[in-house]
Amino acid sequence: MANTADTGQGGAIARLLEQANRQRLSDQFDAARLSCHDVFALDPANAAAMCLLGVCDLESGEIEAGRAWLDKADAANPALPQLHLYRSIQWEMLGDSERALASATEATRLGPDMFDAWGRLGDLAGRTGDFAVAARALQRALETGPDHPARPQIALRLAGACIELSDIAATARALDIAEQTGLKGHPEVLRLRTALARQSGDWAAMEQLAKSWVAAAPGEHEALSAQALALGQLGFYARAARIYQPVAEADPDVADNWAALGRLVLGARDIPAAQALFEKALALDPRSAEAAFGLARVHTFLGRFEEAEAQCRRALENDPGHLEAYGQLCEVASGRLTDEELEALQLGVEQPGLAADRQAIGLFALGDALHRRKQPEAAFQAWSRANATKKVQHGHAVSGGYDRDAQAARTDALMAMFPAEAECAALPAITQARPIFIVGMPRSGTTLIEAAIAAHDEVTAGGELSAMPFILEEFLAWARRTGWSGGEIPVMQRMAWRTRYFSQHAEMGLDQAQWVTDKQPSNFLAVGLIRQLFPEAPVIHIRRRPVETAFSIYRRNFSRQWPFAHDLDDIAHYYAEHARLCAHWEAHLPRRYTTLQYEALVADFEARLRYVIARTGLGWSRKCLDFHLQERSVMTFSSVQVRKPASTDHLNSTAAYAAFLDGFDDRIAALGVDPVTGEWTGDEAQGDAAGGTKAGVRDGKRGLGAILGGLFGGGTRGE
User: Fold this and answer.
1) Which end of the chain, N or C, is less packed with Cβ atoms under 10 Å?
2) Per-residue model confidence as pLDDT tens digits over 390-425
3) Is position 157 within any domain?
4) Phi first, then psi: what are they for 374, rounded to 5°?
5) Is 526 strand, coil or helix?
């Protein structure tokens, strides 16, 4: 009978404590206190009731009264997990975050299956910036409370901790849980989904997610900024600027907001308007390094290198840690830094806690400065560190980067999709803004040939337009979805993509030009598609000696859109796939496809240029020879070089670095590429010299379905 009575009393106490906790969580503190006193009527020394009274007082703002109750509970039962959980609230309210964290940790030790203890520890660790501890604690909370009502919020916080650690997969899993348990469409979920897309470089997905985020949180400046950033990365700078404008106008006295808007407007190629925005920012704050840096870029694009140099130094005077300004300064001054600037840059790249992307910018600049001082070993070491850093995401999580097998599969698929010129129904003739496509490896001379062609009175330089790479991705997705396996693409589909392409001309004010160059190097992948969308468009493929191309790429701070650019073996593999595909286009789609050798071009510039101009269908213009004298903006890495006439001075720029590039020619030859010209040799005996594969349509054993499986199962991963 005694045991039965005890069990009954224990059950009553448990029910009263549960009732008191529910009342406290509903902010019914007085009712919770009454329930606790009912517990004392049955068990005067009940430590759990004392803890609940303590936390009710704390959450009512009565800190000393709460502390007194917790002290009593401590005397009654110091091993009670709730005591240490509520102590963590007490210490946090008193501003002692270290003791708050220690108490929460003790609560998890004493109550390893206690959801609230793990959730509390995760929150506190996150607020103190210890995201690794936060993530582990929040994950344990999810494991211990599969049906807890706070599970969606804990999953959301876990996603926030994981993204700080650059753990993309864990972030996505946590967001899936948050959405599945009731937070689908929540602004914070959309914010983190947007951040995930940004980290992976999926700008199209980021733009759609940010758009949904804006709809869920109208007027949220961070959401508008994210959508503007994504649109800018997609090449829709004018639209991005329109979206970001309200953000700048909401805080009109913040100079850096106008400088950020200036960056977008500059991307839209409205250089006068961008310059006005940067000057407005400087008028608000003469010490705005962002605005000074923006003006430096304006002057660089316009060929005003002395003014650009002065603005870079102004930015560095205002912000000695502005590593982008060092990069721009090295570009316009050909790496010429003072001893003091070099020392400051060397210190700047070693700052503890420096974000990976910022460190890379500084290291590339440092390599250029050391190259200028004829210190090849130190320069190459700096560039190598920069490229190693480019492989590291924020939080120092290593990324896989370039996927060689996927790139080879993509080459195979494109060759299988476009084996020859297809007989297609004619599309309406293009009378204005007729495209001239200039393709090739980055740093192969695409900017030089564009500058020469665009000096023609009938041609406007488009630069590296971003529309075609995105259209190619849409095409590949469409082919997978519809089962298209070659031949003519339906007219309506071709017209839709062509309209999409020309919409970028309109965005950039190029739609009234007669001819527009598009020198996006990666358009070499899209030549088969280009032939169906723009059958009369000239395609000029320029190639350069592989080791010179690779070294020039390796020295530059390429974005994560070019994941192969940070490893010499990856560059060799990508070059080989580029050469293989371009050889296919030249052999099977020869109409209006012109191959140009960079070394031959600079050695006999007029003769080779006359040939190229004739191949485009344009008449000859003497201005094309004097391209370097033309007043025009150049918005690429080559903006400095193309202000000078064509020259053979840099045909052997790798001479001082031969020791560091030893073996590159052998590796590229083993991959089937002539190491002198970059031409595809088709040698099938080389195997896997640079770590990539050479499978595909060449062995005659893979059908289009298998090739497409390889293509759509992989894809080049972002950096």
Assistant:
1) N
2) 876 433 344 457 899 999 999 999 999 999 988 889
3) yes
4) 60, 50
5) helix
How far, in whole angstroms, is CA 315 from its chain's centroid?
25
Residue-range definition of the domain harbouring residue 499? 410-682
Which three-class secondary structure state does DSSP give residue 440? coil
Is 699 or 36 the better-scoring residue by pLDDT?
36
CATH number at residue 605: 3.40.50.300
> Is 315:326 a contact under the CB 8 Å cutoff?
no
- Where a domain ends, among 142, 174, 204? 204
Distance of CA 7 to the CA centre of its chain: 61
Pairing assessment for the beta strands 515-518 and 434-439 based on DSSP bridges: parallel
Count Cβ neighbours within 10 Å for each residue of 19-48 and write b for 16 or more, e otherwise.
bbbebbeeeebebbbebbebbeeeeeebbb
Question: Which tens digits make up the pLDDT trace of 508-559?
Answer: 888 889 999 999 999 999 999 999 999 999 999 999 999 999 999 999 988 7
Give me the pLDDT at residue 422, please.
85
Q: Which two tokens stand for residue 322?
A: 């502005």
**Terminal Cα distance for the chain, rounded:** 71
Q: In the listed set 163, 183, 204, which residue is the last one of a domain according to the structure?
A: 204
Residue 226 domain flag: no
List the CATH number of the domain containing 135.
1.25.40.10
pTM of the full structure: 0.70
Q: Which residue has the tokens 């084996």?
A: 419
Q: How far apart are CA 711 and CA 593, in angstroms?
A: 25
Is 328 a domain residue? no
What's 714's DSSP letter?
-
Could you tell me if 444 and 650 are in contact, meaning their C-beta atoms sit under 8 angstroms apart? Answer: no
Strands 515-518 and 539-543, by their bridges, are unpaired
* pLDDT at 204 > cutoff 90: no
CA distance 148 to 554: 52
Identity at 105, one-letter amino acid code: T
- Confidence (pLDDT) at 696: 34
What is the distance between the alpha carbons of residues 295 and 562, in angstroms, rounded to a whole number? 27
Is residue 89 one of the residues assigned to a domain?
A: yes
User: In the chain, pLDDT over 70 holds for what percent of residues?
Assistant: 89
CB atoms within 10 A of CB 717: 15
Task: Report the C-alpha gap between 709 and 410 in whole angstroms.
Answer: 10
Among 550, 479, 501, which residue's Cα sits nearest to residue 704? 479
Name the 3-class secondary structure at 597.
strand
What's CA 83's distance to the chain center, in Å? 46
Compute the distance between CA of residue 117 and CA of residue 108 in angstroms, rounded to an integer: 5
Instruction: Mark out the alpha helices in 589-663 (DSSP H runs).
Output: 598-603, 605-616
The one-character DSSP state at 511 is T
Domain count, the chain: 2
